[in-house]
User: Fold this.
Amino acid sequence: MLIPVILSGGAGTRLWPVSREGHPKPFMKLADGESLLLKTYCRAAAVAGNGAPTQCGEILTVTNRDYYFMSKDEFACAKLGETQSGAFMLEPMGRNTAPAVAMAARYVAEKYGRDALMLVLAADHLVQDQAGFAAAVASAVELAKRDKLVTFGIVPTSPDTGFGYIEAGEKIGDGRTALRFVEKPDAVKAAEYVATGNYLWNSGMFCFKAGVILDEMKRHAPDVAAATESCWASLHADKSAGQMLEIPAETFEKMPDISIDYAVMERSSNVAVVPSTFGWSDIGSWGAIRDLVAPDQDSNRAVGDAIFVDSHNTYVQSPDRLVAAVGVADLMIIDTPDALLVAHPDRAQDVKQVVACLKKQNHDAYKLHRTVSRPWGTYTVLEEGPRFKIKRIEVKPGASLSLQMHHHRSEHWIVVCGMAKVVNGDKEIFVGTNESTYIPAGHKHRLENPGVLDLVMIEVQSGEYLGEDDIVRFQDVYGRA
Assistant:
């Protein structure tokens, strides 16, 4: 049995303004309309159960609790059915990859046995050669059956300072022993590594038995192992049933913040690496996104509507409006409804400094888009000013907002499309297209879509304070009350 484990975390700050804390890198849509998370899920499903349809196991996703419903929506796009969507383990906060892998291994070992194999994948990587990936996984499985900790090393296509490296030793099966892991090198050292032919890029993907990684964790990172047992004992779920396991904050916050590389892989003498060439990219910067798009004769590339006049080596991504580049060279222009990034390609790694500045200023643009996803649908801020805010709200069929109340604002709801079922104080009413209702401040209210089509409405807020934290929830089908 091979159980894929998807690690879905990290803010992807180098891909701002598209990747943000509330809508991070795994949920970014590429030019084909699919997110990195969806691609990873489909890739995992193709090899689950070691590729045998009769052994098709579940997929375990370890993610932040805030991304649970967004992740389920993405997986539903694959149309593989509930039987393969598997389980979710929800973290209350980020604690790096070692705690995530340890908790996943504890789950797999209890449900499937210590000899069950885990395939650990990052949710935000891209693999372009699916057949090559499946072949590499098959090689890794054979090594993992021999109690090896297996990692996937990418054969370098050029010296690159953006990746860590693995020095490969003698041959073992279809892989090689891993002699050592090295940090991201400078340009000179990277060139030396590539010239030897014995160094591979560290992909951050792994395969091992659940019991073996747990034993290695006890040996090399006993603090992580001990904290894992404490967290496992306090999980809010029937552990045998799976599906959704929520880790309490009071135990998980005691987990050491450390990567699986530092905690185990760099310390263990039992690591093998499978050299791989399956079109891998960690999509670590806008340069990687740009390289996925075919250039024109002037090396310009575009996603969305763009016009280039006397311009060279310029990348434009603007799905919502036309961008014209005139007489410019060596630029990356990333446009979103509420933020614009203009950067030199050589400084793509420094975009994360913009996010750091926004955080210092407590600016919402580091965290939220103008359109915000919620378990029930989305809302988009159309306009706001002193004492008013206008939103477009879209509610999925059968979905319902919480029964709630606001202290400082009143709301006027106008239905644009569909039918709304509204609780307004002591009344329950239906509001159809071109109809409206008014919610005074202090009134308990709830919005529900009883139909089979999306409900679209305009909300006009007015009051002294319009912050999203002015909300008291009394009941909620998504567990937020």
About this structure: The first helix runs from residue 36 to 47. The chain has three domains: 2-281, 288-356, 371-475.
